[in-house]
Amino acid sequence: MEKTGRPEKEWLSERSVNLSTLVLLLEAMLAYVVSLVYGVTQESPNAGVGAGMSIIFLPVLAVFAAVIAGALTVLLVLPTAWLSEVLGRRFGGREAWWVPVAAGAVSVVIVAGAVARAGNSGTGALALGWSLTTAALSVPALLWRSRRERIFKPVILWGVAAIVLTAVLGGVGLATGVLKEYRPPALTSADIVGRWSDGQGGTVTFTADGRVAAVDLDDDLGGWGPEDDATGPEGTDTRCTGQGTWTYEPGGNRQAQEVDMSIEWCGFAPWNVGGTDSRPTLYQYIGDPDSWDLYVLRRTDGSP
């Protein structure tokens, strides 16, 4: 049977798209597990709370992730596979050898654009983002032209095995103390007493008798300041200066600790406890809590 000699184009098929989408989904699940383990070890607001909520909405997230993976297949993996084929033909090498090169080239554009948009010029973040993106694109691009029968089964098997192994190793690391789980410091009322600063000229001083004095604290945190309810003098000043009372609520666990501060003309929500045992902090969310944009107070001395 006569052959045209033209490279077979079956790799540009529904099978290839489905295989790439599957690999991207498995990679996303692996990245999710890694992010959960890593997040547990990092100082963060409401540490350990978000994981449970994410699991509850996992079915919805899975559907959303499948749509995103399909889009990434068309927008990123397909160009990577095509570019590796072009480079392979141009330089007479194996197309598979050029996949990481092509993935790296595509990654540079993606990561550089993301870093420029975020305004982050850190070389470490850029290198890490480029490396991870390159690796993530290389795997589905290498499998793109595979004509192996029943390839979906081994891909699922090895992918799930990698995810489970990562989760088990992460759990063992946390259980044995090799990975240190972050927990806010367990404070008492006596630990709150003293002078705290926001680092921008605002201070608050808590006394042992339950009194508090604030000077130039930012009271415009997106829903709590006098600018929202216009109850302060003239309804325009977004800095809080005054005296009042405070209480410490230990809550049921370390994440539930709160410091409630009541000052006339100031509309603060209860302050959350963060930081470390040696350097505790009090913080509130600025705007949407999901943004993790925080207004933080740090203790500047001991008891007054």
Shape: elongated
Order of helices and strands: HHHHHHHEEEHEEEEE
What percent strand? 15-25%
Ends: how far apart? Answer: 94 Å
- Give the number of domains: 2
Number of helices: 8
| Number of strand segments | 8
Structural class: alpha+beta
Keywords: Membrane, Transmembrane, Transmembrane helix
Transmembrane segments: 21-41, 53-84, 96-116, 122-143, 155-179
Protein name: Sulfite exporter TauE/SafE family protein
What labels would you give this structure?
single chain; 304 residues; alpha+beta; Lipocalin; 2 domains; eight-stranded antiparallel barrel; elongated
Write the layout of secondary structure elements.
Blueprint lengths: L13 H28 L8 H7 L1 H34 L7 H20 L4 H21 L8 H25 L12 H4 L1 E4 L5 E4 L4 E8 L7 H4 L9 E11 L8 E6 L7 E5 L4 E6 L8 E6 L5
Helix pairs in contact: 1-3, 1-5, 1-6, 3-4, 3-5, 4-5
Keywords: Membrane, Transmembrane, Transmembrane helix
Protein name: Sulfite exporter TauE/SafE family protein
What is this entry, summarized?
The chain has 304 residues and is of the alpha+beta class. It has two domains: 171 residues, no CATH class; 102 residues, Beta Barrel (Lipocalin).
Written overview of the protein:
An eight-stranded antiparallel beta barrel has the order 1-2-3-4-5-6-7-8. The model is unreliable at 1-8 and 223-236 (pLDDT under 50). Helix 3 packs across helix 4 (99-118). The chain has 304 residues and is an alpha+beta fold. It has eight helices and eight strands, in the order αααααααβββαβββββ. The chain has helices at 14-41, 50-56, 58-91, 99-118, 123-143, 152-176, 189-192, 226-229, and strands spanning 194-197, 203-206, 211-218, 239-249, 258-263, 271-275, 280-285, 294-299. It has two domains: 6-176, no CATH class; 189-226 and 236-299, Beta Barrel (Lipocalin), CATH 2.40.128. This is Sulfite exporter TauE/SafE family protein. The chain crosses the membrane at residues 21-41, 53-84, 96-116, 122-143, 155-179. Keywords: Membrane, Transmembrane, Transmembrane helix.
